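Hey, weird one. I pasted the ESIP1 protein sequence into the form twice and got a warning about non-standard characters only the second time. First submission, copied straight from the form history:
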Amino acid sequence: TCSVAKKELDDLERWKEEHKPGPIKLVPQRLGGKESEAQAREKQQMMLTQSKYQQKHKREEYVKAKKAAVEAEILKNKAIQREKAETLEIKKRQQEMRRREMFLEDQYYKTNELLNRLDLGLPKSDSCSIANRGPKSTAW
């Protein structure tokens, strides 16, 4: 088994040598772009400061949007509370109207009851002639 393993390793090494890639032949090129190192650093610095301003602007926009959303929520809640207050006021008015109607109806019935009791206590004839009885004097 040891000789078989050694033979396989030798075969592997031989195969690697046969299939080894050749040298790479490239045409030399000038790399690094058209600008100098100083220009590249200056451009990089400018982009860094611009990105700072952009981040600051983004933060401001985010804060503005958040503030607007909070204000919209507050206005919505105020509108809901106003609507609730209006419906409560309408209910109060309706209850007050019902209470007045019931009071007037009750007053009407009590007044009629009192008048009926007073009418029952008096005779059916003219009440003025009964009330004015006195010494009969006639001018005839």
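That's the output from the first submission. The warning seems to come from a hidden character in my clipboard, not from the data itself. The radius of gyration is 56 Å.
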